[in-house]
Specification:
The protein is α/β, with parallel strands linked by helices. The chain is 18% helix and 26% strand. The protein has two domains: 17-70 and 178-353, QueA-like (3-Layer(aba) Sandwich); 74-166. A hairpin with a 2-residue loop joins β1 and β2 (44-49). α5 (316-325) packs across α6.
Length: 354
């Protein structure tokens, strides 16, 4: 049974599905850093482009970036003789995986009638067995109605090796095709492990990073391996594995002591650095599984700004955005994004909240 949020976002706007970016910007004739960038501050809303991000930052600011690399996890399976799309995500401590069944052919909707012990055939003789609903047991008979499962992937090699050979990147029905795994990597991707791309960092290019470094902006790396992002409305994010190193903790604490602003690149970077932050605002070296939900009940302690894409109505990520930017500024930004036809999802446009 999915864990539902006790608090819901205040931000309200119409469904964004008609504004989805259906392909990477490179296929729309843009550079990675050529997507639009909204800058939302208490002083107002500004419209610019991502390659001009350096104009918005100053020497001593810290950008927290996620070094997790995306791994392929989408497969075509057979379930009782019918096609099904299988999403295979985070590896759990006992070697099982977080998995989800989606409707064919493009994973546009979840399949909610999975059953404990059910077997799904995978390519090249592989199989998936549904063990139990994730992250906890459902009150429904046999788990019927659950979206996520703990599953055992049965293959003749390592699961990671099998996925590299047979899987494609996880995607959803709003895309107009399949794209290579390279399209789902950010410039900071070093450590394989994310089920889906930490997409807030996708617009960064080598040229932009060089301009930011020349301006005196500091990069602080963390790692957080993302889970499946297809949460239902009001559903809490899943636990995710993260690591904040001693070096990054020192960078962040020193910069904040000197008055530098801490700007997280994405909700993943926010969750990781906040998971390592003590109540007094000191960041310590930390690693493990984070189940932190940033919300009014647990607001940010160290993050001053956020670079992010645009999130679905009632998504849990909106609580995090509101925690950083405030509900009023978040609402103004989303109203402007809808009015100005910003593009949603992993290949879409961006916002800088300060």
């Amino acid at each position: 049974m999915s864990i539902m949020l006790a608090t819901q976002p205040d931000t309200r706007f119409a469904s964004c599905e008609d504004s989805a970016a259906a392909e990477p910007p490179e296929l729309r004739g843009l550079r990675r850093d050529g997507v639009r960038l909204m800058v939302a501050t208490p002083a107002g809303i500004q419209h610019t482009f991502f390659y001009r991000l350096a104009d918005q930052l100053r020497a001593g600011d810290v950008l927290v970036v996620n070094t997790s690399a995306t791994v392929p996890g989408q497969l075509d399976g057979l379930r009782n003789g019918s096609d099904v799309v299988v999403h295979i995500a985070n590896r759990l401590g006992d070697g099982t995986r977080v998995v989800e069944l989606r409707t064919p052919p493009d994973a546009s909707a979840p399949v909610l009638d999975g059953r404990v012990g059910e077997d799904i055939a995978l390519p090249a003789g592989g199989a998936l067995q549904l063990i139990a609903p994730y992250p906890q047991s459902s009150s429904s008979p046999n788990g019927v109605g659950d979206r996520l499962w703990r599953g055992r992937v049965i293959v003749s090699q390592s699961v990671s090796g099998y996925l590299r050979m047979h899987a494609r990147p996880i995607s959803y029905g709003y895309l107009n095709g399949s794209f290579p795994i390279s399209a789902y990597q950010t410039i900071f991707a070093l450590c394989p492990g994310s089920a889906e791309m930490p997409s807030a960092a996708r617009p960064f290019s080598a040229e932009l990073v060089a301009r930011l470094v020349a301006r005196g902006v500091i990069f602080a790396p963390i790692t957080l391996h993302t889970g499946l992002s297809s949460q239902d409305a009001g559903e809490a994010p899943q636990p995710e594995w993260f690591e904040v190193s001693e070096t990054t903790a020192h960078l962040v604490n020193s910069a904040r002591a000197r008055g530098g602003r801490l700007i997280a690149v994405g909700t993943t970077a926010t969750r990781a650095i906040e998971s390592a932050a003590r109540p007094d605002g000191i960041v310590t070296a930390s690693s493990g599984w984070s189940d932190l939900v940033i919300s009014p009940d647990r607001p940010v302690r160290v993050v001053d700004g956020l670079i992010t894409g645009w999130h679905n109505p009632e998504a849990s990520h909106l609580l995090l955005v509101e925690s950083v930017a405030g509900a009023e500024l978040t609402q103004r930004a989303y109203d402007a994004a809808v009015a100005e036809h910003y593009l949603w999802h992993e290949f879409g446009d961006s916002c800088l909240f300060i």
